TrEMBL record:
Domain ABC-type glycine betaine transport system substrate-binding: 38-111, 221-296
Name listed for the protein in its UniProt record: Osmoprotectant transport system substrate-binding protein
GO molecular function per UniProt: transmembrane transporter activity
Presence of keyword Oxidoreductase: no
Pfam families recorded: OpuAC (PF04069)
Signal sequence coordinates: 1-27
Keyword Signal among record annotations: yes
InterPro entries, alphabetized: ABC_Gly_betaine_transp_sub-bd
GO CC annotation: ATP-binding cassette (ABC) transporter complex
Keywords: Signal
Length: 301
């Protein structure tokens, strides 16, 4: 079983203190000490959100918590977040970077100094998580962010020389960019690239690389189209993380239940989530089957 690094654990502790201070309550408290009853876990309509919600629900049930699920509440990543804000849900999966954009629109996302990031790639995650916890609306809190990222990134052929955003090595040549994907690549990645090749979707972007019409493709980290390509490294956290994280109502969970959700943090990876999404979207498994198998392979202590 993978464990969280001491640095991220320290960041989580600091975030809990900030969350506690936001509403004047006990700085170590994420909710009532007595059992609050049934916990309601929900999701948006996307396959990723459904899977993430079921993983959190399964973890709580395994610890003896009564759980009700409300899946598919609406389209868009904000649908389940809004339901938590309204008090319709106790827990919902969210994305760290998306939450920052929701609560601090237009503000630059926090990061460590570049020299510190180079020494520790997780420094950017730590800064983002602590700062985000401090700006959440009163009554809301976070469990630990997982290792699973859901965001557009650059991908190159696996056989090509390794490419990285540090020093912009290996990033020359045209970039296939799907419709609706960020197009200001220099602003996003901090590196000059070749010309943009607009394509219809992520599958078309991956084909453009395979056929030699582009050197790179911009794809979602959870996209099936990315499976035959290699993600360009981002060791310094140039691109703000959109890590899967449980957004919770602090009055609806005990400290023990919140810790149970945080136990998922070191277990759920981008590769795990991408594989489950592919299985479900292909009709080979239901979300319940996929997450049940994942839980069996990743027992929580």
């Amino acid at each position: 079983m993978r464990t969280r690094t001491p640095r991220l654990a320290a960041a989580a502790l600091a975030a809990l203190v900030l969350a506690g201070c936001s509403d004047g309550g006990d700085a170590a408290d994420l909710g009532p000490r007595t059992a609050p009853g049934t916990v309601t876990v929900g999701s948006s309509t996307s396959t990723a959100s459904r899977i993430e919600a079921l993983i959190y629900a399964n973890a709580l049930r395994a610890a003896g918590t009564p759980v009700e699920t409300k899946l598919g509440l609406g389209q868009g990543e904000d649908a389940a977040v809004a339901a938590v804000e309204r008090g319709e849900l106790t827990v919902a999966p969210a994305l760290t970077g998306a939450l920052w954009e929701r609560y601090r629109p237009g503000a630059a996302q926090p990061s460590k100094a570049a020299e510190e990031e180079s020494e520790n790639p997780r420094a950017q995650w730590d800064a983002q998580f602590v700062a985000l916890s401090a700006v959440l609306p009163e009554g809301l809190g976070l469990g630990d962010p997982t290792l699973a990222l859901d965001q557009p990134m650059l991908f190159a052929p696996k056989a090509a020389p390794s490419a990285t955003l540090r020093g912009c090595e290996g990033l020359s040549g045209a970039v296939a960019v799907p419709a609706g994907s960020p197009s200001d690549l220099r602003a996003r990645y901090g590196c000059p690239t070749g010309p943009i090749v607009p394509v219809a979707d992520e599958a078309a972007a991956a084909r453009a690389v395979a056929e030699g019409r582009a050197a790179l493709a911009q794809l979602g980290t959870l996209s099936p189209a990315a499976k035959d390509l290699a993600q360009v490294a981002d060791p310094d956290g140039v691109v703000p993380s959109r890590a899967v994280v449980p957004l919770v109502r602090r009055d609806g969970l005990t400290v023990a239940q919140t810790k149970r959700l945080s136990a998922i943090a070191g277990e759920l990876t981008t590769a795990d989530l991408a594989e489950m999404i592919a299985e479900v979207d292909a009709g080979r498994r239901t979300p319940e089957e996929a997450t049940g198998d994942w839980a069996a392979e990743h027992p929580m202590k």
